[in-house]
Amino acid sequence: MSAPTDLENLIDLMAKLPGLGPRSARRAVLHLVKKRALVLQPLADTIARVAETARECLNCGNVCTADLCDICQSGKRANGELCVVEDVADLWAMERAGVFKGRYHVLGGTLSALDAVGPDELRIPKLLDRVATEAISEVILALNATVDGQTTAHYIADQLEDRVTVTSLAQGVPVGGELDYLDDGTIGAALRARKSV
Ligand SMILES: [Zn+2]
How many A from CA of 96 to the centre of ligand 1? Predict the structure, then answer.
């Protein structure tokens, strides 16, 4: 058996991407090769650059290409509201909805007894630190409506009690639902109707 060619390697790698299987990976690679100048080369250059520079924002955990992400760097976003999300995908979903004007904090997961994930495995100490040092008036818990998401929300609300107003997203987030799969209007409604914890 001969070694796989570069093209076959590329197809295998693309097939590992979320939302792509082997069949769509083959179609994508074929498209790339046909559009070498227009798509393939710019994509290859951009991937190489992002591979060099992509990192976690030191403050909020967003993915960015500098020490601090654009949101943390923007003075306009320092309005006292801090939105806590599980994952970068949730932050991006909130930004896509365009309804939240404050800053974010990405936990990097949820507490889980089953998987032995405690507060120190998440960015919870950093969250408590930010509430103590930044001028934050409200922490909005935008965690997924899963059992672990809600356990994590209660834990954080307990930690922040008496220190800052804590609210959570209201109706609109279906039970078991994940932010990244909600449409922008639903996220907006859930944010506007947020309730005290
Ligand atoms: Zn940031």
Answer: 16
